[in-house]
What does this fold into?
Amino acid sequence: MRSNAIKVLGLLAATAVFTSCDNDDDISAENEEEVITTVEYTLTSTTDANNVVVFTSVDADGEGPLSPVETVTGTLMANTVYNGSIKFLNELESPAEDITVEVAEEDDEHEVFYIDSISDLTIAKVDTDVNGNSLGLDTTFTTGASGTGTLTVVLRHEPLKPNDGTLANAGGETDVQVEFDLDVQ
It folds into this structure.
């Protein structure tokens, strides 16, 4: 009986040693979700460098209760080709953190999607990730006839790659999604 008691005490002591030696160090996640407060999509005409259109969405409180404010400066001209570039910022940091750098560094884990409601408009992604799949930080934006509609921009984290270019089959998680009014003149 005494032998069994010693075995039980030994087992309890070993259990206590193994469970009490837990590593309590904080280890931050390698790909912790970033706060994106600002999305800036800049279009520059390929034939007139003065024809610049900038779509900006600013969410001043990040994921707080305030709604983002979208603005469009410049005029989208009909039948024009634009070179586009997009920037993602966290302006809650000082100085502002350029999240675009992280997206470019982890390009195989991100993709930007552009969805427009104007049938005579084409947005083509011209950059690729390390595996040759679409990324979308740089685009060619081609307008046709004049018209109005909306442009939705979505940054997706860990999408299925390659994909068919639509959100429906992309998978992953949305890092940020913004919508702008389009007015092609």
User: Anything to note?
Assistant: The two ends are 94 Å apart (CA to CA). The longest strand covers residues 173-184. The chain has one domain: 35-184.
